[in-house]
Structures are given as C-alpha cells and as structure tokens.
Amino acid sequence: MIFHKLKLEGAYRIDLEPREDERGFFARAWCQREFAEHGLETHIVQSNLSYNRYRGTLRGMHYQAPPHEEVKLVRCIRGSIFDVIIDLRPDSPTYLQWVGVELTATNRQMLYVPRGFAHGFQTLEDDTEVFYHVSEFYHPEAERGVRWNDPQFGIQWPAVEKRILSPKDQNWPDYVPERH
Description:
mainly beta; Jelly Rolls; 13 strands; single chain
C-alpha cells in the first residue's frame, strides 16, 4: 500500500500496490503492520456496507462524540463517490478544514479518516457501494452530525440534478463546538 498524507492532519489517501499477471492482480487492502508503521489505528471492530441506488445520494456529515470517536477506512467497491472529511478537533492545526477525494471502484483508493473527523459522501453514479471498516462500535447516544452545506465549511460538492438526503441528514445543525 502507498500512503499519501492529505492536507488535514492525520488523514490519508491510500493506494493499493497491485501485483499483476495475465490473470489480473492481487493487492493488500489492509495490513495491520503497515498501518502501525504509519502511526495509524489498527483496531477494527466492525465493517459496514452502504448501497446507494441513485446518483446524488448524500450521506453525512457524521461522527461519534467522545469517548466513542471512531477511525474509518473507506473504499468505494462499486460506482464512485466524492468522499468528504472535516477536521473537528479543536486542538488540530487543520481544525474546521475539509478535504474531498474521489473514490471509485476503478481507482481502488481508500480514505483513512482519523478520530474527531466528520465524514460523508455523495454518490457520482447510480448503484454505488461503499465498504468501510470502523474502530469503534456504533453508540446511538454518541451519534452526531453537521449540516452537509454548513457555510462555515464551504464544502464544494459536485453538482447534481437531484441531491437525495435522509430527513436526519437534511436536519443536522450547523457546527457548534461541543464542550467535553
């Protein structure tokens, strides 16, 4: 795997290193040792699959509050997404900054989302599937979110004819730092 640091502290885009022959290729998509060598989380407790029927489906911006913050390793295994993360760590030099990457079934890239980040994505085509590992179990009482179009972040989502959001995602509030 090839780890590319993103502009947000602790976030990475990860490329596979395929070993190819006439049959196709083989590549590692997870290696505890390599993640540890980069100082990244190696504890995974759950894997999730998100199927999205339509282009323009937006899921986010989600996170879990302390003490249940989670690390995510996200990969698009069918179709394509614009994947967005926001640094919500008050002590971080990249606090309140966002970055977006295009993850596709074809480019096979992954996004490493550190603890303390909000995460969301918008599908770029119909029938898109997103697979991700998380480091923490889901705790409903710790579930939080911020509005996908909160002006303080200014996320530049790809234009779509119709954007599809759940009622919950439509109604997340603008971001206000939590007191812990």
